[in-house]
Amino acid sequence: MSSPLILASASPRRLELLRQIGIDPRVSAADIVEHQSSSETAAEYSRRIARDKALAVRALFAAGDAWVLGADTEVVVDGLALGKPQDAEDAMRMLQLLSGREHQVLSSVALIGPNFDEVVLQSTSVRMARIEPAQMQAYVASGEPLGKAGAYAIQGRAACFIESIAGSYSGVMGLPLFETAALLRRVGLI
Fold this sequence. Notes:
The chain has a single domain (2-186), classed as Maf protein (Alpha-Beta Complex), CATH 3.90.950.10. It has six helices and seven strands, in the order βαβαββαββαβαα. The protein has helices at residues 12-20, 42-61, 88-98, 133-141, 169-173, 177-186; strands at 2-7, 24-27, 67-77, 80-81, 102-113, 116-128, 162-166. β3 and β4 form a beta hairpin. α3 (88-98) packs across α4 (133-141). The chain is elongated and about 55 Å long.
């Protein structure tokens, strides 16, 4: 069933997750500059980017009744948001930082619509096993880390590197479903 919701993301994972809870949104990718300022914490940055994405897409539709969902996911280690790797070398650097350590995955969801503008943040602790150099090289060579925050996809080949998580699995994938569904319920979209 089609929804009055617009997803401000080109992420197939976010679309798949929304469909998992019965939402089939229109999709319109947000075109914004994603750059963390030196004065922003990783959490502030994630919340701002999710909201900026939703605002940018809502402005495209210039309709007062449009509902837009924006999202952002950041992998954070030592207080630093890693972002998406620029290339294979950058992916190796990120995976070396994460190997054998715990890190945080921050997932923000922004919902903007008629007289409604709210952003929620979900934080998950992820413990990654120590990754052997050959495993890391093979994973990077697969291409999966490119385009992924922190250079890994928990729902893909990197699942074998994850020792434990405390929080939201779907949040690590890119959209925390519990928080997203709660927002959508509050405004009657589910």
